[in-house]
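Why this split exists: single-chain examples teach little about how molecules sit against one another. For that reason, every record in the complexes split bundles all components of an assembly together and asks for one structure covering all of them. Below is a record exactly as it appears in the raw files.
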Amino acid sequence: METTHSNAPYKTKYEKLIAEAQSTEMILNMGPQHPSTHGVLRLELITDGEIVKEVIPHVGYLHRCFEKHAENLTYQQTIPFADRMDYLASMNNSHAWVMGVERMLGIDKEIPKRIEYIRVLVCELNRIGSHLIALGTYGIDIGAFTPFLWCFRDREHIMNMLEWASGSRMLYNYIWVGGLFYDLPVGFEERCKEFIDYFKPKMKELNELLTENQIFISRTANVGILPLDVAINYGCSGPMLRASGLKWDLRRVDEYSAYPELEFDIPIGKGEMGTTGDCWDRFKVRVDEIEQSVKMIEQCLERLMKDLKRTPDFDPRAKLPKKIIPKAQDYYLRAESPRGELGYYFITDGKSEIPKRVKARAPSFNNLHVISEISRGILIADLIAIIGSIDIVLGELDR
Amino acid sequence: MSFDEVKDLLISKFGEEVIVGEERTGMQPALIIHHDRIAEVCLELRDNEKTYFDFLSCLSGVDYGVEENMFGVVYHLSSIPYKTQLTLKVKKYHDRSREELPSFPSVNEVWKTAEWHEREAYDLVGIYFENHPDLRRILLPDDWEGYPLRKDYKAQEYYHGIKV
């Protein structure tokens, strides 16, 4: 086949695939308004009956020109835009952005401990919220309705707490360069502790209902197996990469913020129900990560209530730089968002308050790319299971 | 392996002319590679057991400004076994003529990550990648005019009768 078509006048692989689809094959559009594509994603499927022969993702429906905006706004003004990239984990996005700017300014070592701990606390809360959505919607994708409601019920507590701290439910603009928008409200730590005590048994319930459910296992085990070498070559990161069996977490590798002082494990996929790197493993890694986040939150709360307790004269805006003008340099910062390696690449000229070029490396962008590799020759119903297990957020994919 | 060791390794393997410069001013030093040799350099860095840069973190197309008329691609490599990072750059003068785009070899054979990232650089900065299997626009519509992240970009006035 290869040799006969190598001279055909096709400019791109896409044209070739579409033109060479056989008359017995059907080209099927899934999305952009499909409920289980998690947003405005369009997948073009070349199908032979129920078998998917090729998946061609089309992205960009939610492109909001993040990089262009960032080239026209100051660093502080871009934080709300960074929030809107991955709208399920705004705190993690702005944390990464802010860390990058602080390191370029050279003030990252001067940030008070209390601020670092508050940042990690809200980021981990947000990570739990984001993973709860991933787990809940994954359940609904493959036919389990109840876990969805349970996850949203628990996430609501997190939303309320973060709203209490920052003033908005999803897009917080809470972490600022050099500090925070405001200190935690009085009573936040206690409320958070209450939530953790309430939440721990709920995860056990969720596991009994969904993770160890035989129907769920049959739908996800041995489906969409992502081998480790493919995952690395395609630049997959986060739970995707860890589910394939690699202990790789930037919170441990890069040791940023308050993470080196916290104790936590890195869950990886072990192929308990099928093969390492299948959909069930990706689901399970997220479940385990919630447990680890809970552990981290407990440690943060302990320190925030003891030696880093709030004092009347503590001002989270004290270190805020008046003018943010980093030296002329290039800097790439990577951090672990709930979906994987989130990177910002800055080019600054040392004269203006506006970066010359910003590139955002969104984890979903690379995680989705691999879908055409792992979805050849599967059933259409399994494709739904695979998309859900990747846990894409189109806001960050399209930027 | 440190930055200097990587540099020595590349010089001993490919000769002096493969490295055309280096940038050490910032926190992350970068090697500027000759623009025609980037694919083979990347392949060597990925497969050499002393470096093992098996993970491409990020690939960014850059327009360095209207005065310089310089275009470039920046590669952020990461090694999972050694936990090291490396920045490579390629740069090329280009007069912004409409007919031909600045062109660099594709590294999509080395890391598949590059396939979509190069499509993005083509889409937004207007950089052509030789030997890329599927160079189409990715974030913008196929019939969009111009490359928005170029410094001299002016948006078209109407797109299918809709004011931009």
